[in-house]
Amino acid sequence: MATAATVQGPAAPGGVPAARRKGVTGTRRWVAAVFLLPALVLLGALVVYPIAYTLWRSLFDKAGSGFVGLENYGSVFSDDSTLTALRNTAVWVVVAPVLATALGLVFAVLTERVSWGTAFKLVVFMPMAISMLAAGIIFRLVYEQDPARGAANAVVVGVHDTFADSSAYPGARPRPGGELAASGGGSYTTQQAARQGTAVALPLIGIPAAELPAGTGAARQAAAGPGVTGTVWLDFKPGGGGTAGAVDAGEKALKGVRVEAVKDGRVVASATSGADGTFALPASAAGARLRLPASNFAQPYNGIDWLGPTLVTPAIIGAYLWMWAGFAMVLIAAGLAGVPRELMEAARIDGANEWQVFRRITVPLLAPVLVVVVVTLMINVMKIFDLVYIIAPSTSQDDANVLALQLFLSSFGGGNNQGVGSAIGVILLLLVVPVMVFNIRRLRREARR
Length: 449
Known about the structure:
By secondary structure, the protein is α+β, with helices and mostly antiparallel strands. Helix content is 47%, strand content 9%. The two termini are 53 Å apart.
């Protein structure tokens, strides 16, 4: 007769049959395996298989039919675009997570003790509800060069024009072959020295009459005076006709033009043209050449080239901070709620100011949360793609390039070389793995506490 052990299987230590073994949760292992099977299938189909295929594909040529070994990896590290992308990715990994975490920390701490802190946190967190695509479109408009369209340059130009006077006659120039000639730096100087008791004609062109300042009057020929006199005017008669270099009826004066008398490279006198275009210099200007400085003709300030080669990466990082500072703030605020208030109050009673309390107590106690935020954002920025692709214009996209964007461009964006693209993907995975390992070890250490 069969024993219980032979019917139910070999007995496990303690006399419990193997078929009845249970896990620590009290569930039979085969039941747990059945429930985990769909997740494992999805994990294999969506994670394991793509990683394995990408690694395999990186060893083949552009067509995918010829085995080339590590040649694609050599191409990656010898290509200038990929090296630029690698350098920019390093900048992103170092700068963006640290700044986002710092902003989140500041927001969380400063809004903790104000009545409207919750509303402020809601506003800061709201950009997280916007997709990267929408945020990229928004900031592409914000960074437009034209101040009439770009909000950033509208602010910059407004502040600049508040403290600096703009030129009234941008683009004005003398007639070719006239008395005035270019003298460097955008200024114009007479070729002959001025004589005392004579009126100097300083005609200019290149200004549409419709763009003259409101209230511009008619030009008048300056009368000879005791010093040096002259007229600055728009040498253009509506309807045609007139004499070049002479003040004709109907021609407009150029008011507010600065005129300098230059002798031996030094300004000895200066004057500003009046409403009728005339000016008068003292007798000390006799023998000097008259110069119209470049400040009279400077183009209006057009703001900062945010999306140029120099600033395109910092500008895109700014867009990223707008989106993710709220994420950091919410996590840090949750950690801050668990900080013992008794420690802070004790420090204040002992004479510590708010900065010392923040630096010596708040930040050390929040260190685990700050590490979580920084590591999470580091993994996030390694695969940044949308913002760079949308915000950076074609003229500076190479300067803003990152690894995820280079992967797309190499595989589908004109390069059509999925071997090189797969190699970049493998490199990107290898860069992410150390951060993930660090995060897993940190979580295990905290779980053991």
